């Protein structure tokens, strides 16, 4: 095994511009702010570039924490049971310190199936819930301007293309994140304005529910009048704008956890907990997932949705049409940050506090889990249902049916 | 730039045996103990092997913290002044948690001159004193069973050999750490017993001072009657034996900080704070370093010895003879863990609490710094001075002159 931290000279300039975009548009680091970077060790060239870009933007201190999936694998494989759920105090203190800070997390798994041969139940159990809860608290309080960006690497490229063609992956990433534009910052501003207009139009229509129809899917889920549709142009409590996902192509809302019925099938593979879930099919009753089937990885989803009470309820509905740059690549990225922006998706677990004005209202789901899975395809039809039961087409053949 | 995390299949077996030795002989991890690993990202294959070996030895939880010199470089180069001495709270909490735990730190700098072109004063300032002080507290209380081991890597090999011959470096490391023996654990037991006998013989002679003579060196330094000579076979307060350095070839003691006079010249280059100090020459008066000269890197040493009151006084004297496996390789490793075991060395800064029975007595130096530099060579003569002024030869031509 040889893990390459690749950053040849021509790529370095691209890497610097990419890091700069993540710092200035993504997290939108404020002068004098502490910046937390969370990166797998294989993403070190990006973490380093982010660090430099953050200091250049006036960061007070950049705190980089490297993660290593092999260390995690060793714990799950060889550690005692108590290690699986153990949370060191220092990680809680570090999580507390995120409030008021900027954060940038990297994605792009260099070994997406590394944990695939481990006991699925132990993999599912291995999580630091206390840390997740602290960070969720900051999210609810809108205390962090954060962003996620991917780092193209050989293992990830190999999973996608069957060969470690990092350059091809870089080109796809540059296209999806608008780094190929002469003025990426301007292109992002325009792009976000269009998504904001879509969200505004949906909010005006005040649908009571959505109805999804497609192969293996016949699913109705309630909307909350208190939760608006929005784009991923977020604002902290202090009003600082940031874009938590780069790329982003979605508009989304928090559904009513109490109202969901039917069956919903995934349309793309889902990278989850070190393995790939394929052909996922969920049966839902009274808002709750009551049955999980899959061609591969069903036990991972079952373990995850039983990790707390809210994990088997829904937290997000997101709409993406065929103009998506991610969708246009025609590539399955095996990375949620990308694949969820290729097409429509739904998440079980935690809702999205930002969709509420002020405190999240009743009906928003609470959980330590938030897992997006893709449901969109040319065959998927999405309707908005009005309070008096009328169906209004929103998506047909991946084409947006409402004004924008 | 491409950083290779190299661990080919045949090397993996060696790596596993090496990690096992570090866990079982070095830190001597106790069943149910928390284990902290501190590793540069380029040492990840070793950190992973240490994690597996620690869990196999019954560790309760293995906490791996990766460091990245490029992140540090960005801070020194681009960060505000306050970033240099800023210590995140979580790092203090993590340092507190080391008490009662095992710790393994890796060495072997992949880019030893990375910080060489930065402002020496900023490099010297960039340290987290509070963390160092917390850990020193645990050391004084003998609360940690810890060890340092090196990871052979391309950059380090290149610094040593002028070419990235990692296999040659691995062979040298395996020789020095007795991994080439059929029974490395048995070989270590025998080796430590011989060093213990040397220490016992010196303790019996009760010298009042040592006198060093050689090219550029004429140096007398007082010994403390309360500080014994010892090998690096350490014991925690609870009596757990461990070997903090692998390799180790030295016997050492804590000198009297109040009594040192003369000039002392280094005999080997010294890797310090991201640069290489060459041709170091110190002038000492009343125990204190009053002048620093060097062919290269003097300002780094000057900055370091002015970082607190104790930094310009001495904390360690160590004797190594020509039987040293490290010395026998004839290689300059540019890594203190190795080079200090090639030949006699002296450290300015913090003394060694373990050399005292119970609380360290008066005369032990206190500092947040502890920097070993090499003074031994075939030309160096070391005498023990008795209380009535008699000189007894200890080392001549790198040959031990006392019974062992």
**Secondary-structure class of chain A:** alpha+beta
> What is the domain tally of chain A?
2
What is the end-to-end distance of chain A?
Answer: 50 Å
Helix content class of chain A: 25-40%
Oligomer description: homodimer
Question: What this model shows, in words?
Answer:
2 copies of one chain form a homodimer. Chain A is 32% helix and 27% strand. The radius of gyration of chain A is 20 Å and the shape is globular. Chain A has 2 domains: 9-176, Thermophilic metalloprotease-like (3-Layer(aba) Sandwich), CATH 3.40.1830; 184-400, no CATH class. Chain A has helices at residues 9-26, 44-56, 69-78, 81-85, 89-96, 120-125, 129-140, 154-161, 166-176, 184-205, 298-305, 325-329, 336-339, and strands spanning 2-6, 34-40, 61-67, 102-107, 145-150, 209-214, 217-223, 230-231, 234-235, 241-242, 251-253, 255-265, 270-272, 275-277, 281-285, 288-293, 314-319, 345-349, 370-374, 381-385, 391-396, 399-400. The longest helix of chain A is centred in the middle third of the chain and has 22 residues, at 184-205. With 404 residues, chain A is of the alpha+beta class. An 8-stranded antiparallel β-sheet of chain A has the order 16-15-12-7-6-20-21-22. A 5-stranded antiparallel β-sheet of chain A has the order 8-11-17-18-19, covered by helices on one side. Chains A and B meet through strand 1, helix 2, strand 3, helix 3 and helix 5 of A and strand 1, helix 2, strand 3, helix 3 and helix 5 of B. Strand 1 (2-6) of chain A pairs antiparallel with strand 1 (2-6) of chain B.
């Amino acid at each position: 095994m040889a893990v390459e931290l690749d950053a040849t000279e021509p790529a370095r300039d691209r890497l610097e511009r990419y890091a700069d975009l993540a710092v200035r548009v993504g997290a939108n680091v404020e002068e004098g702010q502490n910046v937390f970077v969370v990166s797998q060790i294989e993403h070190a060239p990006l973490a380093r570039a982010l660090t430099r870009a953050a200091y250049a933007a006036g960061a007070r201190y950049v705190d980089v924490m490297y993660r290593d999936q092999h260390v995690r694998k060793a714990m799950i494989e060889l550690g005692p049971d108590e290690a699986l759920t153990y949370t060191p105090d220092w990680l809680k203190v570090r999580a507390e310190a995120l409030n008021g800070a900027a954060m940038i997390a990297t994605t792009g798994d260099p070994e997406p199936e590394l944990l695939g041969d481990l006991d699925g139940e132990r993999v599912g159990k291995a999580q630091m819930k206390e840390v997740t809860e602290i960070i969720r608290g900051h999210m609810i309080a809108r205390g962090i301007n954060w962003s996620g960006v991917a780092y193209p690497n050989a293992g990830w490229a190999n999973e996608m293309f069957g060969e470690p063609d990092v350059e091809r992956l870089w080109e796809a990433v540059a296209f999806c994140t608008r780094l190929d534009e002469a003025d990426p910052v301007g292109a992002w501003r325009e792009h976000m304005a269009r998504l904001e207009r879509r969200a505004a139009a949906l909010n005006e229509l005040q649908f009571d529910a959505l109805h999804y129809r497609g192969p293996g899917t016949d699913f109705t889920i309630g909307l909350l009048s208190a939760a608006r549709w929005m784009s991923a142009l977020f604002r902290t409590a202090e009003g600082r704008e940031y874009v938590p996902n780069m790329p982003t192509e979605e508009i989304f809302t928090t559904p009513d956890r109490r109202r969901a019925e039917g069956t919903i099938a995934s349309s793309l593979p889902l990278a989850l907990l070190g393995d790939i879930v394929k052909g996922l099919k969920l049966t839902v009753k009274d808002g709750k997932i009551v049955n999980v089937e899959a061609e591969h990885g069903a036990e991972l989803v079952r373990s995850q949705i039983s990790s707390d009470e809210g994990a088997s309820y829904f937290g997000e509905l997101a709409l993406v049409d065929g103009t998506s740059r991610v969708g246009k690549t025609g590539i399955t990225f095996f990375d949620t940050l990308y694949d969820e922006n290729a097409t429509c998706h739904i998440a079980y677990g935690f809702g999205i506090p930002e969709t509420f004005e002020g405190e999240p209202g009743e009906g928003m789901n609470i959980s330590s889990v938030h897992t997006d899975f893709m449901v969109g395809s040319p065959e998927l039809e999405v309707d908005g249902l009005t309070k008096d039961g009328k169906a209004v087409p929103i998506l047909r053949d991946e084409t947006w049916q409402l004004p924008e």
